[in-house]
Amino acid sequence: MAKLEILHHPDPRLRKKAAPVAQVDTSIQQIVDDMFETMYANQGIGLAATQVNIHQRIITLDISETKTERLCLINPEILHKEGKIEHEEGCLSVPDYYETVTRAERIRVRALTRDGEVLEQDFDELMAICIQHEMDHLEGKLFVDYLSTPKQQKARKVVQKWEKEQAKLAEKRAAAAKAIIA
C-alpha cells in the first residue's frame, strides 16, 4: 500500500468531475487500499479519489473510533434523500477549517463495493453527511462552496497558513536529517 498526496483548496484539480469506474479489478482495489491508508494516516473519516488526484468515482469512509468499519463506495449514487441536518464539517483538502453545512439527514445509496458487488443501503446522520460530502468531491464541489463569500475567503487563508506551516516543518526535518548525515 502507498500513502497518496492529498490536494489542497484551491487546487483546480479538486474541481474536476470524476469518471465512473468501468470495472472493479485489482488496480481499483489497490487504489481503494491506498485511499484507506491515506485517510487513516491523515486522521480522516472520509476520502474521495478526486482528493488524491485520481478522477474516478471512488470514496472511502470509516467514522468508527476504532477505525475498523471500512466502507468503500464505487460509482455511488443517491437514490433518495430525506430530512435536513446541520453539522460542522471539515475536510482533508481544506485543513484546519471547520464550518456548519446543511445536508440531507437520511439517504439511500447504491454503489459497488471494493469487491465489485452491488450495495444498496440506507444511511443516516454522520454517515449520511460524510457520504454526501465525499460525493460532492466527485462532482468537483467542496464543502466551502456552500458557505458565504467571506467564509470561503477565510477558508482559503486558513489553508494558505497551514501550507506555510507544513513547509516550515519540512525545512526543519530536512535540516535535522542533514545534520545527522553530516
Describe this structure in words.
By secondary structure, the protein is an alpha+beta fold. The strands form 2 sheets. A 5-stranded antiparallel sheet has the order 1-2-3-6-7. Strand 4 and strand 5 form a beta hairpin. The protein is globular, with a radius of gyration of 17 Å.
Q: Termini distance?
A: 32 Å
Kindly state the number of beta strands. 7
Poorly predicted tracts of residues: none
State mean pLDDT (0 to 100 scale): 95
Structural class call reads alpha+beta
Separate helix tally? 3
Shape: globular
Binding site for Fe cation: 91, 133, 137
Enzyme class: hydrolase
Organism: Thiothrix subterranea
Active site: 134
In short:
By secondary structure, the protein is an alpha+beta fold. It is built from three helices and seven strands.
Write the layout of secondary structure elements.
Blueprint: H1 26-41, E1 46-48, E2 58-61, E3 71-82, E4 85-91, E5 94-103, E6 106-112, E7 118-124, H2 125-138, H3 149-181
Antiparallel strand pairs: 1-2, 2-3, 3-6, 4-5, 6-7
